[in-house]
Amino acid sequence: MSATDSSLLRPGLLGRATVNVVVTVSVLYTLLPVLWLVLASTKTRDALFSSDLLSLSDFSFLRNLDDLFAMDGGLYGRWYVNSLLYAVLGAALGALISVACGYAFDKYRFRHKEKLFGLVLAAVMVPQTVLALPLYLMASEAGLVNTFWAVFIPVLFNPFGVYLGRIFARGYVPDEVLEAARVDGAGELTTYVRVALRMLGPGLITVFLFQLTAIWNNFFLPMVMLSDQDLYPVSLGLYQWNSSASVSPEYYPVVIMGSLLAVLPLILAFVLLQRFWRSGLTAGAVK
Amino acid sequence: MTTTTHSRVPAGAARAAAPQPSASGVRARRAARRRRLGACGVLMTPFFALLVTVFLIPVGTAVHLSFFSDDQPGLGFGPERQVFVGLRSYAAVLTDPTFLGGLGTVALYCLIYIPLMVVGALALALMLDSGVVRLRAFAQLGLFLPHAVPGIIAALIWLYLYTPGISPVIELFAKGDITIDFLGVHTVVPSIVNIALWSNLGYNMVVFYAALQAVPREVIEASVVDGAGPVRAALQVKTPLVRASIVMVSIFTLIWALQLFTEPMLLSQSSPMISSRFSPSMYIYDAAFTRNNYGLAAAASVVLLVCTIALSYGVTRFTSRADSEEAR
């Protein structure tokens, strides 16, 4: 491709300016609310209501942080640990389960396979709110309502992860490798654990990240299942504190600071694992 | 005689010998196949155990519950028993103005949200793909950032930005002598659309961008040779090539939009415009856990489920028909 060809594809000066303006405005739209959250977290309650965001006279970031962890006997710290447990353990275990199933869908042949896969895809479509009441009734029958497991077990289920796992298995694990392992006399499961799982690494991390985000965001299921505040994840806890804020405004700075801290783990995960999820998105999108 | 025996012996031996290795071969192949199916079973069992317990049984339970009702004979003192009520719960749901109102709200929400989301994300992806955007990596990261913000926190941030007294946005408008109530009768749905758009625009943009990156450069070069300008190349060459992604994003956006719950639930703490049955999902929650009417909640769940499946199927059919027409 010569230089003239590529310059033909480039829009003219006016087009270029328009494109840059539109993208800049969009980036401001996505960034400014987060910036507001950061600035608001440094304000005392009174400064928050005076809307003087840029003045540094009422800087109370550290005090707000102290207040956050002292509020209601340190509930926030508990919620944070709970969220980490639900999300990190749930996503790790869930990703392993989904990817193993997706791999089996790609590498083995059996009767009615595509029908079964259709069932998995159909499960992607079903709204969580539809499942909530029956899940609650089942959990209450099993005596699991208001326990860690009532939230932890349902979030392991990730049919979209199976779909991704199948695509990744097709893309990353050549059938020849499995044939070679079989000729060498390696068992099927040993081959999966020792050979295939390594090749599936980036895919596994992508599914893990998808599920981590989903569980960290989860709000409906904990709201249905949990009544003990000590078991709440951050999302539900902040929801509750915010509902108290209209009566007792001392909750406002705490809710804002708590929101800021709740954003950090996912940002950290996305930045650290950037290399993997980018390739994963491509696989999921191009199909 | 000798010749026949001679010829017979090796033939017999061959006949006797030949099935033997093939029999063991069949057996070995069967054993291998059984081993493989066994491994396949082991790899699939955990997922399908989950599928049965947290998906199939709950869906079945919801359908079952929707046809039954708790009947308490003797002024509620006798033992509770379930009685078959047929379609009574469905009739109750479908004639309940608050449920129909919720469906209408979600329909309006989808009509505003989905086109804005798909067109906006695609337009941004095409612009970033055109190669003229400065600081492209930074722009992408900035647009993607809200995806890392949990839904309830996105709703919290925007709730504060919609609240007079706290919001710098409202203050800015006030300086220009414009009073704006983001949570009024006509603004509440657009305000919720804005939260969802803010949360998901960047994520879908990255999906489209990834698909655009996979478009072979020769195709675009060929269109340039044919005299297509940058805008025409984007709309008539690149866009049709990422149809699969457009369909996928549309369906996922639709499924999520129909479940609308988190944002209105949070906003309802501060806005009298949002009732406890604002959307079908909120209706289900309210029926099940506030009114304890399981039959009603289950019937509403099944209606929502049927709507979701029908609409997703409709989108798939519509796009595949458009595909085959294009092929013609």
Automatic annotation (TrEMBL), chain A:
Location(s), subcellular: Cell membrane
InterPro entries linked: MetI-like, MetI-like_sf
Keywords from the UniProt entry: Cell membrane, Membrane, Transmembrane, Transmembrane helix, Transport
The organism's place on the tree of life at top rank: Bacteria
Membrane topology: Multi-pass membrane protein
UniProt record, GO biological process: transmembrane transport
Principal location listed in the UniProt entry: membrane
TM region positions: 21-39, 84-105, 117-137, 143-164, 204-226, 251-273
Domain ABC transmembrane type-1: 80-273
Gene3D superfamilies assigned to the protein according to its UniProt record, in alphabetical order: MetI-like
Cellular component aspect of the GO annotation: plasma membrane
Keyword presence, Transport: yes
Signal peptide (from-to): none
Pfam families reported for this sequence: BPD_transp_1
UniProt family annotation: Belongs to the binding-protein-dependent transport system permease family.
UniProt-recorded name of the protein: Carbohydrate ABC transporter permease
Species this protein is from: Streptomyces parvulus
Automatic annotation (TrEMBL), chain B:
Topology of the protein relative to the lipid bilayer: Multi-pass membrane protein
Superkingdom of source: Bacteria
Bias-annotated ranges (Low complexity): 7-25
UniProt subcellular location: Cell membrane
Keywords from the named record: Cell membrane, Membrane, Transmembrane, Transmembrane helix, Transport
Stretches the record annotates as Disordered: 1-27
Domain ABC transmembrane type-1: 103-315
Any one of the GO BP annotations: transmembrane transport
The keyword Acyltransferase belongs to this UniProt entry's keyword annotation: no
Transmembrane domains' residue ranges: 37-59, 106-126, 138-161, 241-261, 294-315
GO CC aspect terms: plasma membrane
Entries under Gene3D superfamilies matching the protein: MetI-like
Family listed: Belongs to the binding-protein-dependent transport system permease family.
Annotated protein name in UniProt: Sugar ABC transporter permease
